[in-house]
Design a protein that fits this description.
With 132 residues, the chain is an alpha+beta fold. It has 3 helices and 7 strands; from the N terminus they run ββααβββββα. The chain has one domain.
Length: 132
C-alpha cells in the first residue's frame, strides 16, 4: 500500500512548486531523505517531476560520508500535476503527508489530514531524531 505525499519546494516566501510522490511518503522516510539532499537537488527532482508527470518513488542513498545522491523513479504515463499551495486543504486531500523543502535547507512536514494543525520544522537530522 502506498503512503502518498506531496513534496513542495519554496521559491520565495509564499511561492511554491510541488509534485505528487506515490510511495514511501511517511515522515520516517521522506523527512530524513529531504534533509539529506540539498535544496538544489530537491528542486531538480520536483521540477523534473512536474515536467514528466509525478514521482513514483525516490530514495536517498549514501555514497560516502556526507555524500548523498537520489535515486528517482518517475511516472511518465500520467497526467501532469502542478501544485502551488501546500496549505490548501482542497489541493492536498488525496495524500497522507505534505513536505516543504525550504531555501535554507530545512524541511517542514505535516499529516495532510491535519493540515491546519502545527507543522513540524527541522533543520538537521539530529533535530529530526530528537523531535520524532
Amino acid at each position: 500500500m502506498a503512503t502518498r505525499s506531496h513534496i513542495y519546494i519554496e521559491h520565495n516566501e509564499g511561492l511554491y512548486t510541488g509534485t505528487y510522490c506515490h510511495y514511501d511518503g511517511g515522515p520516517g522516510n521522506k523527512a530524513p531523505a529531504l534533509l539529506r539532499l540539498s535544496y538544489d537537488s530537491v528542486y531538480a527532482i520536483v521540477v523534473t517531476a512536474t515536467a514528466k508527470g509525478m514521482i513514483r518513488n525516490f530514495n536517498v542513498l549514501e555514497n560516502g560520508p556526507e555524500l548523498w545522491y537520489s535515486e528517482v523513479e518517475y511516472f511518465s504515463d500520467t497526467d501532469k500535476e502542478y501544485l502551488t499551495n501546500p496549505y490548501c486543504i482542497e489541493n492536498n486531500k488525496h495524500v497522507d503527508y505534505l513536505y516543504i523543502k525550504r531555501k535554507d535547507g530545512s524541511v517542514e512536514f505535516c499529516n495532510a489530514y491535519a493540515i491546519e494543525e502545527e507543522w513540524t520544522k527541522v533543520s538537521s537530522l539530529e533535530e529530526y531524531f530528537e523531535k520524532i
